[in-house]
Amino acid sequence: MTMKGWRLLPLLVSAALLLSACSSSPGPSTAPQSVPSGSSLSGAIVDQRWNLLLLGTDERLSMPETPFFQISKEGKVSGHDGCNRFTGEVTLGENQRIEFSQLATTRMACPQMADAKRVTGMLETAYRYLIDHDRLVFFGPDSRVLGGWREGN
After folding, report:
1. Phi and psi at residue 79, in whole multiples of 5°?
2. CB within 8 A of 75, min separation 6: which ones?
3. Nearest 5°: phi and psi at 43?
4. Per-residue pLDDT tens for 99-128?
5. Closest CA to 62 of 74, 53, 50
6. How far apart are CA 83 and CA 52, in angstroms?
7. Exposed e or buried b for every residue in 54-69, given b needs 16+ CB within 10 A?
8. How far does Cα 37 stand from its chain's mean position?
9. Which phi and psi angles does 117 have, rounded to 5°?
10. What span, in angstroms and rounded, lies between the C-alpha atoms of 11 and 142?
11. How confident is the model over 69-102, as pLDDT tens digits?
C-alpha cells in the first residue's frame, strides 16, 4: 500500500463505523396509535370545539370566519381553516402526542388562502399538545410553539 493509501485508511474505517452505527435497529416508537376497532378516543381535547387563537406565539389572524376544529371519539377531525372546510383523522398517544393525517379540504378560493393553508399546516405539523384551562397549544417535533386554540361553544 502506498503512503497516500495509509493516510486514507483511518478515514475509511471511520466512515465504515459511522455507517454501521446508522444501520442499527431503532428503539421503541412513541408514535401515536390509531384507534383500534371498537374503542374510542377520550380526554379533554376530544368532543370539544377549538377556535384558533394564535399562529405561532403571537400572530392573530383576521378572517371572515374563525378557524376551528373538533375531534370525535371515533378519531375523526373536522373543521374550518378560515376559508375551506376540512376533514381527516387524528391519533392520540402517550405524553400528549397527536398526529393529524389524511386531511382533505374543500377548494374554494378566498382572499386569505395563504393564512388558511397556514392553519391546516399547523395541524399537519402538530406533534404534541398541552391543555391549560380553556387553551390548547400545539408544539412541533422540535418543541416550537405552532399555535394556540381556545375552547369554543
Report:
1. 175, -160
2. 34, 35, 40, 41, 89, 90, 91
3. 130, 175
4. 999 999 998 888 888 889 999 999 999 999
5. 53
6. 13
7. bbeeeeebebeeebbb
8. 23
9. -65, -30
10. 32
11. 999 999 999 999 999 999 999 999 999 999 999 9
Distance CA 26, CA 29 (A): 8
| Residue given cell 374503542 in the structure block | 39
Q: Any residues with CB less than 8 A from the CB of 111 and at least 6 apart, and which?
A: none
Task: For the beta carbon of residue 121, count every other beta carbon within 10 angstroms.
Answer: 15
Query: Cell numbers 400528549 correspond to what residue?
Result: 96
pTM: predicted TM-score of the whole model, two decimal places: 0.72
Main-chain phi, psi angles of 4, to 5 degrees: -65, -40
Q: Would you state the cell numbers that stand for residue 14, as one nine-digit string?
A: 471511520
